[in-house]
Amino acid sequence: MLTDQTIATVKATAPILEQHGELLTRHFYKRMFEKNPEVGPLFNRTNQEKGSQQKALAAAICAYAANIDNLEVLGGAVELIAQKHASLQIQPEHYPIVGENLLASIREVLGERRD
């Protein structure tokens, strides 16, 4: 269960994520593939090169931040993501790799930005 303070903090990040989301996700994927090349084959190279994967992740992160106090509205999108991950045979051990690289990317790209 998230505290009211955590919810407010995440919601407050929505504008900065909307503004810098694609920069963040481009950095994230580059970082993750360099540090964890074993997950590279799980991702569609064409989508990476075209930038569609980065845009999709940026949109998902923004939607989560903006709706953290009303996650039910994201149910359909989360279901689609879950089905896609299942079809790609994403395993539980892959999620910490994504989480670690995403959080590091947030620190590296966004830092203490307030714009």
From TrEMBL:
PROSITE patterns: GLOBIN. Residues 1-115 form the Globin domain. It comes from Chthoniobacter flavus Ellin428. Keywords: Dioxygenase, Heme, Iron, Metal-binding, Oxidoreductase, Oxygen transport, Transport. GO terms for biological process: cellular response to nitrosative stress; nitric oxide catabolic process. This is Nitric oxide dioxygenase. PANTHER family: FLAVOHEMOPROTEIN. One of its GO terms (molecular function) is oxygen carrier activity. It is an enzyme of class 1 (oxidoreductase). Coiled coil: none annotated. Gene3D superfamilies: Globins. It comes from the Bacteria. It holds the Pfam family Globin. Its EC number is 1.14.12.17. Belongs to the globin family. In the C-terminal section; belongs to the flavoprotein pyridine nucleotide cytochrome reductase family. SUPFAM superfamilies: Globin-like (SSF46458).
